[in-house]
Design goal:
Number of helices: 3
Distance between the termini: 36 Å
Radius of gyration: 15 Å
Helix content: 55-70%
Shape: globular
Oligomer: single chain
Order of helices and strands: HHH
Number of strands: 0
Length: 73
């Protein structure tokens, strides 16, 4: 069974770079090919796609939190 984990944005970015090194192309190129059905659905590729989706959805939040005018309550 899959166990949820907490991961920092920097760790997320590092994991994406590990996949890029392993497979020899950028995450953006991977995701384009993955979405087009060119790569199959191996567990490793599904994880890479999931991590990239998490990266894309968390980036705007991270950018907002880093704004000078943002004040945490």
């Amino acid at each position: 069974m899959f166990k949820s984990q907490h991961i920092s944005f920097d760790e997320l970015r590092d994991r994406l770079r590990e996949y890029e090194t392993r497979y020899g192309y950028s995450t953006i190129e991977f995701y384009r090919r993955f979405q087009n059905g060119e790569l199959g659905d191996a567990d490793d590729l599904m994880m890479w796609a999931g991590l990239y989706h998490l990266y894309l959805t968390s980036l705007p939040i991270r950018q907002f939190m880093q704004r000078k005018e943002f004040v945490a309550a």
